[in-house]
Amino acid sequence: MAVEESRWAILYCPKKGWFNTRKRWSRLQQELDARSIHYDFVQSESVESVERLMTMLINNGYRTIIIVGGDTALNDAVNCLMRQEKMVRDQVALGLVPNGLANDFARFWGFDEDNDAQTVEWLQARRVRKIDAGCITYRDKNDQEQHRYFVNCINIGLTADIMNLRIQARQVLGSRQLAFLWSLVPMLFHPHDYKMRLEIDYDVVERSVMTVCVGNARGYGQTPSATPYSGLLDVSVVYNPKIKQLLEGLWLLVTGRFLNHKSVHPYRTRDMKADTGKALVGVDGRLIDRPVGEYRIHVEPEVINFLIPA
Q1: Taking residues 103-113, what's their average pLDDT?
Q2: Residues 6+ positions from 251 with CB-CB distance below 8 Å
Q3: Which residue in 65, 78, 6 sits closest to 37, CA to CA?
Q4: What angle do CA 120, 299, 111 make, to 5 degrees?
Q5: CA distance 227 to 234
Q6: pLDDT by residue (tens digit) across 109-141?
Q7: What whole-number distance in Å separates Cα of residue 291 and Cα of residue 139?
Q8: For residues 98-108, average pLDDT
Q9: Segments of 64-152 assigned E as strands
Q10: Across-strand partners of 194?
Q11: CB neighbours (10 Å) of residue 19?
């Protein structure tokens, strides 16, 4: 039985380890029902189930799929969508209601986790914009080629370590601010650097690097000038600063002036290659297997239909 084009599919991804799941959904449901929006609802049971449910919704013919989740849930949905044929993908519009431990991509567009009324109003207006997707292609420890798409950013090195700690800490502490402070401990007391080789257009960086951010969007403040509709990726390469410079860099990150720090070297590119050794790699906030050897990061312009604020 065909699904009418106006009916939404809502894929609800509860926050891991949180116990107010029912209350959060009830709040959103009130807004949907108040606007007489017709929708079908599915809830993910685990991280692994998001792509399976997303595939089911696409195969059932839904044209509007709303992800209620954070950056990683959206990433799973985008990767599922990117595996579809272009003809199928072009028929689907993807929307986002922020409900994650990190909602950086939602904040880029102005979506607020505490303002469901505004979010639902914007989604109902159905203003569709084609956005870019970044892609990392690498070989894993089993020598298998892997592809992973992203809409926000890739973090390599210390920031990937810190983001992983931050997410774990917020699951325990509950507070975004406390989790952020807790995750800074390794940065302040155990500064790291990694031997890397980066080829960015005609520039080659071959030296010790603390962290790299490749941003299709704001990249948790590290690529503040990036926009997911420019056809380009912003790259911030950060060399290992001294403690005083590190504290200054944190202040500039918080105040949105990260690129002004002397240890930050910004680039803009469509395609780059990297060999980052033992450094951790995070894609939209989730760690992937360490790439073995050289890998490629590039951008695919205007491949996702995304519902943006009206």
Answers
A1: 94
A2: none
A3: 6
A4: 20
A5: 9
A6: 999 999 999 999 999 999 999 999 999 999 999
A7: 6
A8: 90
A9: 64-69, 93-98, 127-139, 145-150
A10: 209
A11: 8
From the list 217, 197, 212, 159, the residue with the least C-alpha distance to 273 is 197
CA proximity to 67, closest of 38, 118, 28? 28
Distance CA 115, CA 199 (A): 42
Q: Centre a 10 Å sphere on the Cβ of residue 16 and count the other Cβ atoms it contains.
A: 14
- Cβ(308)–Cβ(189) below 8 Å: no
Residue 243 in this model has a pLDDT that exceeds 50? no
Give me the residues paired with residue 93 across strands.
64, 305
- For residues 77, 79, 84 and 86, what is the CA-based torsion angle, rounded to 10 degrees? 100
Cross-strand partners of 298: 135, 271
For residue 219, the one-letter residue type is G
Distance CA 272, CA 295 (A): 9
Tell me the β-bridge partners of 133. 300
Query: Taking each helix axis from N to C terminus, what angle separates 116-125 and 21-34, rounded to the nearest 10 degrees?
Result: 50
Sorted by sequence, the CB contacts under 8 Å of residue 85 that are 6+ apart come out as none
d(CA 109, CA 74): 14
Bridge partners of 199?
204, 273
Say which amino acid occupies 303: V
The C-alpha R_g of the chain, in whole angstroms, comes to 19
Q: Helices (H) and strands (E) in the chain — how many of each?
A: 10, 16
Q: Is the Cβ–Cβ distance between 170 and 179 less than 8 Å?
A: yes
Beta bridge partners of 170: none
Tokens of 157: 């090195």
pLDDT at 157: 86
